[in-house]
Write a structure and sequence with these properties.
Length: 394
């Protein structure tokens, strides 16, 4: 049988990678071989013999007019051959064929789990006006699901529902619930990212790291209690709230979710809470009183954080007897959460605990003394500072 009468490469690849229509329905076409270009990067005439072939590696003739002559077969120039090898290696490097399974993804880009796209980052939105750009923006996918609708003509119609949040980490944030065509996931994710960029809002942050005050927020059956935290605490919350905080630029926060953990309800409730929070100056202007902050990390030392902007402060006689001044009641709107009760020290009541109390008896009043020193002499007393601080305050 003559070689030239056999089928070409296409028929060979079809025999290796082909499957019947019935086999496709049963999932047999999932991990078959894919057609590859085995000659990518190679050029006719170049080989290990390192010979220059006229018409392949060089022109057939050289010169012009009377001086035209036919090129002969000669050894190939070493520089030309090494240049060809470099181009061939570069072509092989840029050509990646994947055998079945999933492509490798860097651990930092895998999102919340390696198998699903949730939590994965999809870059900045694309601006319609080319004169503007979304600098320092990044988008995170919070929810990706397939939903169905039954119609009279088309029957059960499928589409994707995509929840995407975008932000620049400096207060600007936006989110969207975008529909996408089933089977066109890449286009749907790109459209969701761009739509999120069209719905940006600005969120005020205290010291550019946390919320201004504790607050309560809810949407549907989802209830969220948010607490401000000191520097270095980090974000301890639901993973959707963590992703939103990262896009907003909030670094220290504690949030407790109760009721339904629907992803869209959590996102909407938390965004509503961020937009409804009041700055310290707004709270002081509303009550016409000084706003005093006492936090556990500062030994509950009182600190005035805001005063009425017009300088008019109400007296005790002007404050109504039934007016609510408890900050938690105001910020949580009467919906106080059931915080986890403090656990009792298991060592209490044991002989070792009595020994500890006797040993530390001389230091039992240190906290009270430190607080009194701060009240009488200023905030620098009782703090851990160098003895050279008065001379070098910077």
């Amino acid at each position: 049988m003559s070689y030239y009468k056999t089928g070409g490469a296409d028929s060979l690849w079809n025999s290796m990678a082909g499957v019947s229509q019935q086999g496709k329905k049963r999932g047999r076409a999932r991990n078959l071989m894919k057609k590859k270009d085995l000659n990518r990067g190679q050029k006719m005439g170049f080989g290990k013999a390192k010979m220059s072939w006229p018409g392949l590696t060089t022109k057939i003739t050289s010169g012009a007019g009377v001086d035209t002559k036919v090129n002969e077969i000669v050894p190939l120039d070493e520089k030309t051959y090494s240049s060809y090898l470099e181009e061939l290696e570069e072509a092989k490097k840029n050509t990646k064929y994947f055998r079945g399974g999933k492509r490798y993804t860097d651990p930092l880009d895998r999102g919340w789990t390696g198998g699903k796209p949730l939590g994965r980052k999809f870059g900045a939105p694309e601006a319609t006006n080319k004169d503007y750009s979304f600098d320092n923006f990044d988008s995170v996918l919070l929810e990706f699901k397939t939903v169905f609708k039954m119609t009279g003509n088309l029957g059960r119609v499928r589409r994707n529902s995509i929840l995407m949040v975008t932000g620049n980490g400096q207060g600007a944030v936006g989110y969207t619930v975008s529909p996408g065509k089933y089977g066109k996931n890449a286009a749907g994710l790109r459209n969701a990212t761009n739509k999120a960029g069209l719905r940006l809002v600005y969120v005020d942050r205290y010291e550019d790291r946390t919320v201004y005050h504790d607050f309560f927020t809810q949407f549907g059956k989802t209830r969220i209690y948010v607490r401000q935290q000191p520097p270095g605490h980090g974000v301890v919350a639901h993973r959707a709230i963590k992703a939103i905080c990262e896009r907003v630029g909030i670094k220290d926060l504690y949030a407790k979710c109760e009721g339904s953990l629907n992803m869209q309800h959590i996102t909407k409730a938390f965004m509503l809470g961020l937009l409804r929070q009041k700055t310290h100056q707004v709270l002081a202007d509303e009550k016409k009183l000084h706003l005093v902050e006492m936090r556990s990390e500062n030994d509950y030392f009182p600190k005035v954080v805001a005063s009425p902007s017009d300088g008019v402060v109400r007296t005790a006689a002007e404050i109504g007897h039934n007016e609510i001044l408890d900050f938690e009641m105001i910020s949580f709107e009467g919906n106080l959460p059931e915080w986890r009760p403090a656990q009792k020290n298991p060592m209490e009541g044991t002989p070792n605990w009595d020994k500890h109390l006797r040993k530390k008896w001389a230091y039992r009043s240190h906290d009270d003394v430190r607080l009194r020193m701060r009240v009488e002499n200023g905030t620098e007393w009782g703090a851990v500072r160098s003895h050279l601080y008065p001379k070098y305050p910077e």
